[in-house]
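Hey, I was hoping to borrow your eyes for a little while. I've been puzzling over a protein and I'd love to understand its fold better. The fold is given in discrete form, as structure tokens running alongside the sequence. I'd be grateful if you could look everything over and explain what you see. No rush at all, and the record is pasted right below.
>
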Amino acid sequence: MGAPEEEAPRPPSDITVYGANCSLHGLSHIFLPGGVTIRRLLWAAAFSSSLSFFLYQVADRVIEYYQYPHVTILDEMDVPVMYFPAITICNYNSYRKSQILRNDIFWMAGLLGVEQGDFDDFMAAVGQPTDNSKFFPSKSFNMLEFVQRASHSMDEMLLDCKYRGKDCGPENFTIIHMSLVLNHILTEDF
């Protein structure tokens, strides 16, 4: 009769296409075209055991979460004199713009990224007069003096302070490296 027809290759199944294109580690080694092999069975066992262990851990943590466990440990000690802990007050706005002078801009322009031609714009941006006619820069610049003058003062930042029911104020604070830290040696009044 006629010549035997050649069978057309079967297209891969949907799961094989998914497994080959999936980024889930190991799945592409399990779902390959062809028959079952030892290698595939080992990959399937490794994948199944890993997935089972992961799901077990998830279920265990969800159950633990919904049990609302509380662990509270309380140690109580009587101390006759308790020292106030050292605290740090940081102001991210390091300098008061009202205290920045044209001389400061002249000397720190490189640090601030301000070109000499932009001084007037910068002074206007910080709310200072832009009159340049009477400006003569100083012969030197003292960064410590600038920091002390332009930094925020404790008098302005400290709104209220109480320790052991008594008022405290800026005199109880010491400036250290542009941070305001409560003085460790409190007066006898505290």
Notes: The first helix runs from residue 14 to 21. The helical segments are 14-21, 27-30, 38-66, 102-112, 119-125, 143-150, 154-157. The chain is about 35% helix and 5% strand. The two ends are 115 Å apart (CA to CA).
